[in-house]
Amino acid sequence: MCTRSRLPRSRRGTYLTLLMMFAAATCRLLFFLQSRSAPTFLEPIVDSRTYHDLAMMLASGESPGDRLLWQGVWYPLYLSGVYAVFGASIVAAKAIQILLGLGTVYLTYLSGLRFGGVRLGLLSGWIVALYGPLVFFEQQLLPTGTAAFVSAALTYAAIRLWDCRGRTQWFLFGVIGALSVYVRPTMIPVAIGLLAQLFRAVWRDRQRLATVGAYLAGALVVVSIISGLVWQECGRLGIVPESGPINVFIGNNPNSDETILIRPGEEWAKLLRRPENNGYPPGVKGGNEYFRREVIRFVYGSPLRFQGGLVNKSLALVTSRELPRTVDIYFHRQWSECLAVSVFRIGEWGFPFRVLFPFAVLGLITDWRRYRSGPILLVVAFQALSIVLVFSAARYRIAIIPGLAIMAGSGALALIRSIRSGAWKSGALSGLIVAAVLVLQTLPGPFPQETESIADDLYFEVGKGLYEKGLWESSKHFLVESIALDPGRHASRQVLGIVLAELGDCDGAVDQLLMVDSGCDSPMRQQVKLAREQFILGKSFDRIPE
């Protein structure tokens, strides 16, 4: 039998819970309304554009083929379901993700409630409710917000059901566990760890064997459904994204500081061509074989550099700053006052992770006996390990925020108890722990992701997307912005040249195209001049060389 969750029985506790959820909804709605002025609100770019395009194809009945397997299959399948019901509505997709965000808040509250009582539940829930980076990423066309939701759901399910022997509940636990793996492949170690603990419990109590069967049955149902959908679209199965080997290579090679800065476009295309240039068969299979061998060669050939890289990526994971990866949250602050207040950076100090993580460490230390044998630490630690093995970025650590919020609540409550009880030595020790973690978060860096701005990428991708839709005047505006930020960005000048040609500005078009590469050879210049003559004669402008 399972005991019921310890919901607050007092009227005050109920009011505080409702107030917490109201604050969470208000914060998310404010950001939604304010961010409508952001260029990417209705014009997804980079990974968001990939997911959007795949979902559009699936919703229209068109098969994306192997493209579906390149990244995680869950999010495009989910997004296609939204588009099938509401049309190709990005607004509807974001609205549903807001609801999932509220679910993340409530599940975190329930986990804290069951783990440490009403105060811990409310405090951890409030942290997640007002956590700016989470609010931001919940409303991007990325699986980040969904990953936070399933992480919170898996944590609560584990806490709620660990001493439960009900088969129905464990069946649902298996469903959540399998779903979390599809949503974020970094959850695979978490699912394996939880299953290992379950087998350990069964070994001690054979009467719980039925719970293992129920758990596996629930997981099998999810795997069967999603595998069936993937097989229907691709003709083969896939749980782990095919981009896994290249992502592992990006963070684990002798020049990882350079590869982690590779941008979408020609730089990324060059990386994808590297296996073929080294004699491997063209295609995903040959590419993955090349990148796997390169990683193994690096690990065994330069073990000290590999270990040093792990240390550096661990420091990047816990830094107080939000490291960009195709999305720079600090750059988006200009389009939302709500985001500007809840996420900011002063020098090397980044808020709010600078406050969250030190108190999470304090909570883990002060309440170690309970955390070491519970699922909260397992969910956080195994996900963190998966991130460090690849590379760190702000959007990847969002999934561990619900677990860290519970730990941070424990730390804050422990410090308050020390102060109220007059245990000044304990309070001083807690202060020293927090101060030490603050130093750890501040001194390392700058990390490679912080050395270059990706703002010009945003404007270029938006401008290119608008050009493809035939919105040439709007496209021109964003491409000009991209060139203003990076005058040497040839791709921006190239697309701008074509846009200007479509707008009838032949001289401006050719001027931009001639500036694509100041060192280009004479034949290319001759081709551009020929293209100008063709345009003047009313011929196609599409033959301008890339």
Largest beta sheet, briefly? 2 strands, antiparallel
> What helical percentage do the residues reach?
55-70%
Distance between the termini: 67 Å
Note the beta-strand portion: under 5%
Q: How large, in whole angstroms, is the Cα Rg?
A: 25 Å
Strand order of the largest sheet: 1-2
Structural class: mainly alpha
Low-confidence sequence ranges: 519-524, 536-546
Give the full name of the CATH homologous superfamily of the domain at 455-536.
Answer: Tetratricopeptide repeat domain
Calculate the mean pLDDT score and round it: 85
CATH class of the domain at 455-536: Mainly Alpha
Order of helices and strands: HHHHHHHHHHHHHHHHEEHHHHHHHHHH
For the record, the CATH architecture of the domain at 455-536 stands as: Alpha Horseshoe
Question: How does this structure look, described?
Answer:
The structure is a single chain. The chain has 546 residues and is mainly α. The chain has a domain at 455-536: Tetratricopeptide repeat domain (Serine Threonine Protein Phosphatase 5, Tetratricopeptide repeat, Alpha Horseshoe), CATH 1.25.40.10. The protein is built from 26 helices and 2 strands. The protein has helices spanning 11-34, 46-59, 74-86, 90-116, 118-129, 132-138, 144-161, 167-183, 188-204, 209-234, 244-251, 256-259, 266-277, 284-301, 303-318, 337-342, 353-366, 368-372, 375-390, 401-420, 424-442, 455-468, 472-485, 490-502, 506-514, 522-536; strands at 344-346, 349-351. β1 (344-346) and β2 (349-351) form a beta hairpin. The chain is globular. The model is unreliable at 519-524 and 536-546 (pLDDT under 50).
